[in-house]
Design a protein that fits this description.
Layout: E1 7-13, H1 21-33, E2 36-44, H2 46-60, H3 63-81, H4 103-114, H5 119-122, H6 129-137, H7 140-145, E3 150-157, E4 162-167, H8 173-179, E5 189-191, E6 194-198, E7 218-222, H9 236-267, H10 273-276, E8 282-286, H11 289-293, H12 305-326, H13 338-342
Parallel strand pairs: 1-2, 1-7, 2-3, 7-8
Antiparallel strand pairs: 3-4, 3-6, 5-6
Helix pairs in contact: 1-3, 1-12, 2-3, 3-6
Length: about 350
């Protein structure tokens, strides 16, 4: 579609390793639909990479450039990881249905090794292939100097146990790497004498920077980690999966509870928005619990192109469905049932 953007939304992009390819699909479909513009993006981990690529593409050349740049980024991620420890077999059908990944053995071996060796021992030079990819694809100075799309990148301050939001002139390749720094894989990223790990521990993604944008009241969260499960996990693998999901969803759910409280108080007339500076926000979420809950934890390390593009396509389908059901609500009301999430 080639519609002229008529509504503005802010984006909140979760992290999730290779599962971030789902977000790639969401962003691509929003651009193809053409009815929505973007002012502010908050991203964490893989979400911060998607955010940086997306924002730079829009600055550099608009919709078509951004779509091409996102595909190039994920293709390079796939090529870079093809011969890594977690690479899966090219011949596997590893998406929907029973999913037994050959990479599970490599993942288990790594999991055991990480209990005895740190990245400071296994990777003393601090090498990270993502750095070369990001530096070669993004002009970070252009991002810093543009106000077309405001970026907020979340990371965790290791020594201070607090959230750090990088924005404006702070948006550098190291800030994005800090946001995606899993401590089992990479040495802490040092920026201005401070040490940072993955932002998902403290904000996945952080919503509060989006509340300050006057251009729109609408926030769209792209959900990667499943919030709900149908059964109690009983095997070591499924227990580890669920612990990961709960840990990385909990900061988001805490923020949603806070925003839901503010919305409720504003709607009931208990808050004077002019005095307190708070306002009602329209909250939306795009995701696919069925698809994402069928993916085991180790698939977050799966770089296979077939797997990434299937996740991209799942993201596009979920976004089409959301737009068909809720586009008219943008600018008017929330479409996210927060009571069902946090009640």
């Amino acid at each position: 579609m080639t519609n002229t953007p008529s509504k503005i939304i802010n984006l909140a992009l979760q992290g999730g390793g290779a599962h971030g390819a789902f977000t790639w699909g969401v962003l691509e479909q929003l651009l193809l639909d053409g009815r929505v513009a973007f002012k502010t993006i908050s991203g964490t981990s893989a979400g911060s990479m998607n955010a940086a690529i997306f924002a730079y593409g829009m600055i550099k050349g608009g919709r078509d450039t951004t779509i091409a740049l996102m595909e190039q980024f994920w293709r390079r991620i796939s090529d870079s990881g093809r011969f890594g420890a977690f690479a899966a077999s090219n011949t596997m059908d590893q998406f929907l249905g029973p999913m037994k990944m050959m990479m599970a053995g490599a993942f288990t071996g790594f999991d055991v090794m990480s209990k005895y060796f740190s990245p400071y021992q296994l990777n003393p030079l601090g090498l990270n292939p993502l750095k070369d990819i990001l530096q070669s694809m993004i002009d970070f100075e252009a991002l810093q100097n543009s106000d077309a799309i405001n970026l907020h990148i979340s990371a965790t301050d290791v020594l201070k146990s607090k959230l750090k939001i990088f924005t404006g002139k702070e948006i550098t390749v190291d800030a994005v790497l800090a946001s995606a720094c899993l401590p089992q894989l990479f040495q802490a990223v040092v920026i201005d004498g401070n040490y940072y790990w993955d932002g998902g521990f403290m904000g996945n993604p952080s919503l509060f920077p989006l509340t300050e944008c006057d251009a729109t009241k609408d926030i769209m969260i792209v959900q990667i980690d499943p919030i709900f499960r149908d059964a109690v996990p009983r095997t070591p693998e499924t227990i580890a999966d669920r612990l990961n999901e709960i840990s990385f969803n909990s900061p988001l759910l805490v923020e949603l509870r806070g925003l839901h409280l503010v919305n409720t108080l504003v709607q009931k007339g208990h808050l004077d928005t002019q005095t307190c500076g708070l306002r009602e926000l329209h909250l939306h979420m795009v995701g696919d619990e069925k698809v994402m809950s069928g993916l085991p934890l180790e698939s977050k390390f799966n770089p296979e192109w077939n797997f990434l593009t299937r996740l991209r396509d799942a993201g596009k389908i979920a976004t089409k469905k959301w737009l068909e059901a809720h586009f008219d609500d943008v600018g008017h009301k929330s479409t996210l049932d927060i009571d069902a999430l946090v009640g």
